[in-house]
C-alpha cells in the first residue's frame, strides 16, 4: 500500500560510463528496467549520430527475421517460443549473428527460386498434358486425324514447332493450341471472332482440376483452346491476342501417334519433376524447421542490441572520447540495483575503470512511477486513463480496487449474472499463462484479458449485492425462511370465485391484540429476528415491490455518494499535508468538508434516523426527506399535524429544535462560500505585503533600493498554498482561480450527489429488464404442463440464455462499467486528484520486446 499510495521518489542522475564498458553497462540497465533516460543529443540528426551504422545493421537483421518468420508461416512450421529471456549479446557476437542470418536468407531465397522454377515447369507440363489430351479427343471425334500423306510438304511450308497444319481437299488448315485463364475465355472468344470476322474456328474446354500458381501458391482455373484458321495473317493476329490475354501456346503434333508419344514423354517428365519437387520441398522444410527453433531467440537478441545502441546515441561523449555521459530519472529504491548493474557491466567488459552514477539537483518535475503487478495494473490503468497523477500526490488506485467493483455491483446486482461473470474471468485467470504466450490476441481480446482481475472482482461483488437484493436471475430465494405469514388466504375467504380472481391482500406488519401480526420474528433453523441476510423473499411477490425497493436503493445511493465524496475530500487533506500547503487545509479542506456535511451529511443522518425512529405502526406519520430538505434550504417552518387520537404526527419535524439546527446548518454552509472564495487570496496578498515590507526595511533608507526591493519582492514570496505552478501569481489571478474552483465545488457537490442516483437507476433498470426476459421467455415454457412444454422450454431456454448473456451481462455490464468509471473520474477524483503528471517510461528490455511484437502484429 505504501508504494501505491504515492508515486515513488525519483532523482535525476548522471551516468558516467567508460567507453569500453558502455555497451555492457547499458545492457545491464535494460535488464533492470529502472531508469528513464533523456536524449542529450536532440539537436543532432538521427542519421548523424555515432551508432547509426549499428542500428542499420540491426534493422537489416530484423528484416531477415521477418522474412524467415513469414516463410515459416507459409510452410506452416511452428515457431518455437519458450519464453526465454537471453542476455544482450556482446558486440562481437553481432557479426556472427549477422552472417548466420544472411546465410540463411540466401539459402532460403535460392531454394525458393529453384522451387518456383520447378513448380513453373510442373505447371507447364500439366497444361501440356491437358492440351495433348484434349487434342487427341478433338481430332478423333471430328475425323480430322486422317491426314493426307501427300500433304507433308504443305505442312512443312506452313511452319513447324508450335503450328500444325492439315491439308484437306487442297485447303491448308492451321491451328494453334494452348491454355488461357478461365475468367478470360469469353473476352478471348469475342476478340478472336472480331479480328477474323468469323473465319476462325475456336474451341475451348475447361480444365477439370484447379492448378497452382507457382509464384503465389493460389489456385487458378484455366481452359484449353484450339484455334483453326487459314493463312499466316490470321496466325500473327491470333498470336498477338494470346500475348495480350497472357495465354500460353504449346506445340501439338499433327498425328495421333506423335500425340500419344509426346503424352508419354510428358507423363515421364511429370513423375521425375514431382520427385524433384518433393526433395526440394523437404530440404526447404528442414531448413525452416531448424531456423524456427532459434527464431524467437534471435529476435530478442537483435531487439536488445538495437535498443542498446539507440540509447547510446542519446549519450554525450566527453572531450577525451573515453567516457559516455547520460542523464536519467531513477527511483530512489532502485539506486543500489543500478549501481550493482553498472558494476556487473564493467566486470563483463573487463574494464579496469568502473562506471558510476551520481544524483544531480534539478527544478524539473520528475515523472510519476507506480510499481504495480498483474493484479493492480488494471486498476492503475483506469486511473491513468483519466490522467497520470502529479508527482507524489495521492494515488486513487488502491482505493479503486475496492470502490470500483463495489459501485459496479450496486448497479449490476444480480447473483446469477455475477456468478457467470466471475466464472468467465476465472477461466481467464486459469488459462493466464497460455493466453499470455499467444502473440496476436487482437485489440479487444487484449483489453479484456488485461482487465481479468477487474472483471473477476466485479463478478464477486455482484454476487454479494445480488444476495443483498435477493435477486438471482430476477428470482428470489427463500433461504432462511420468510418472516411474512399471511393470516388471510384463499382458504378462509367467503368471496365469490369471480371476485376472488386477481384480488390482492395487504399484509399488516403491525401487531394486533386479537389477530396477531402478518410479520413474525421467527424463521428456519431457529434463527430469530428479521430476515438474516438481504431482502425478505416475500417482497418479490408483492405489488408494491418497486416502491419499496426504489425507496431503499435511492437512499442507499445517496449514502454511498456522500461517503465517497467525503473520502475524496479527506484524501485532499493528505495532499495538502504532504506538500506542506497548510493554508489549503484551513482555506479549502475545512470549509469544503463543513459545506458537504451541513448539506448532505445531515441528509444521511436523517436517513439513518428515519430508519431507526419509525416502524410499521408509525410509518403513516413518517416525514418526507425530500420535502424536509427543501424546507430546510427555504427556511420554511410547517407545524406537524395531529392524529385522530390527538397525538402528534411527525410529517415535517423529526425532533425538537430541528428548525433551529437546520437554520444554523444553512447559515454555516452559506458562510463556507466566502470562506473558500476570499480567505486564500487575502492570505497570500497579506503574505506578499509582509515579505515586501521586510525587504524594504532590510534595504535601508535609499529610495532606489526601496523601489528595487519592491519590484523584486513578489518574486521572493514562497509558494505556500499555491497552485503547484512553481511561481507566484498576482492577486487578480489568484482571485479568479479561486473563484472558479469555489463555484465548481459548491455546484459540483449538489450535482455530484444527484449523479450518484445512477446507482439506483441502473440497478432498477437491470432488475426490471431481467424480469422482463424471464416473463417473456422461461415463464411461458413453465406454464405448459405437457410434453410439448418440455420441447418449448428447451427451445426458449436457448433464446433466454443468449439474451441474458448478450444483453444483461455484456451490454448492461458495459453500461454499469462506464457509469462506475464516471463516478470515480468526476465525482470522486476531482475532489483531490490533479492528474497533470507524466508517466515514468524506463529503458526496459521487456517493454521493448513487447512493443516490437505489437508493431509486427
How much is the radius of gyration in Å?
43 Å
Number of strands: 12
Number of separate helices: 26
> How helical, in percent, are the residues?
55-70%
What percent of residues are in strands?
5-15%
Which segments are poorly predicted (pLDDT under 50) over 5 or more consecutive residues? 143-170, 703-719, 723-727
Shape: flat
Largest sheet: 5 strands, antiparallel
Mean pLDDT: 83
Structural class based on helices, strands and sheet pairing: alpha+beta
The separation of the N and C termini measures 36 Å
Record keyword descriptors for this entry.
Alpha-Beta Plaits, alpha+beta, flat, 857 residues, 7% strand
How would you explain this protein's 3D organization?
The protein has 857 residues and is α+β, with helices and mostly antiparallel strands. Among the domains are: 10-101 and 281-359, no CATH class; 114-144 and 172-278, Alpha-Beta Plaits (2-Layer Sandwich). Helix content is 59%, strand content 7%. It contains 26 helices and 12 strands. It has helices spanning 2-5, 22-32, 52-75, 91-142, 152-158, 185-196, 232-244, 256-312, 335-348, 377-386, 397-412, 415-430, 432-437, 443-450, 452-469, 497-500, 545-578, 582-613, 625-634, 658-699, 703-712, 731-755, 758-776, 778-782, 787-828, 845-856, and strands at 10-18, 36-37, 164-168, 171-181, 201-206, 211-212, 219-220, 222-229, 248-250, 316-317, 323-331, 356-360. The strands form 3 sheets. Strands 1, 2, 10, 11 and 12 form a 5-stranded antiparallel β-sheet that branches. A hairpin with a 5-residue loop joins strand 10 and strand 11. The longest helix has 57 residues, at 256-312. It is flat.
